[in-house]
Amino acid sequence: MVDIIFRFSPQLRDVLGRFAKAEKALLETRKKELDKLALDLESMAEAEAPKGATGEFAKGITTEIFVQGKVLGFNLLSPQPLGLFIRGGTKPHKIAAKGGGVLAFLWASGPQGPGLHFFKSVNHPGTKPDDYALRAKNRWIPVARESLNRMALSYTAELT
Questions:
Q1: Domains of the chain by residue range
Q2: pTM value?
Q3: Distance between terminal CA atoms of the chain?
Q4: Which tens digit of pLDDT belongs to each residue from 81-129?
């Protein structure tokens, strides 16, 4: 037989207040973590992206943060249409000069020796797909998991 029953039930108002306070703190934490996660993925994508002669493609990779109601997120963006060609590859195709002009190539081992060579058109051999963004995402996932754990712990800490 139980002689004494002791229950402690916080008032509903107190519980709702704690959730409201915790949610506000969590939103701030989410914004900070999202900024960091976006920059992390951006730098990983830049590192994985092909550099070419100038590295301009990799330098052009950015992230764009969005807010839709209570949903925070970001998109990884790359210079277009080059990003599509790099990730999807291209089939062999002909490249022709526009407007009756010519294409100019500085070619160290050209058909007539080193120098500047001119053509009305060339046959491009195509390119293999390079899914640099997928490689970056796979590197980024463990970092994102750590961030989600930090956010969950901070929310729990705010409630107690």
A1: 12-89+128-159, 91-126
A2: 0.73
A3: 33
A4: 999 999 999 999 999 999 889 999 888 888 888 999 999 999 999 999 9
